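Reading group handout, session on sequence-to-structure problems. Before we discuss, look at one worked example. The prompt was deliberately terse, the way you'd type it at a terminal:

> structure DUF2892 domain-containing protein

The input record follows.
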Amino acid sequence: MPLERNVGGRDRLVRAALAVLLTVVAARALRRRKRPAGLLAGIGALGLGFNATTCVCGLNRLLGVDTTEGDD
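And the output record:
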């Protein structure tokens, strides 16, 4: 059962940019042996990257938010 897209446009671009930023933060934190901060940033990066790649966000679905209007 495919999930209905609810992430698009600027929202998708912002999520992708934040995923890249959090990946850098995670790598730096882990290199400095700050494991909890690195793991949290890494988990955030994975979540935002998943959202940007699949155009699906569970929180958007729960809140009834759809940012794909106008996307084709």
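Points for discussion. First: Residues 9-54 form one domain. Second: The mean pLDDT is 94.
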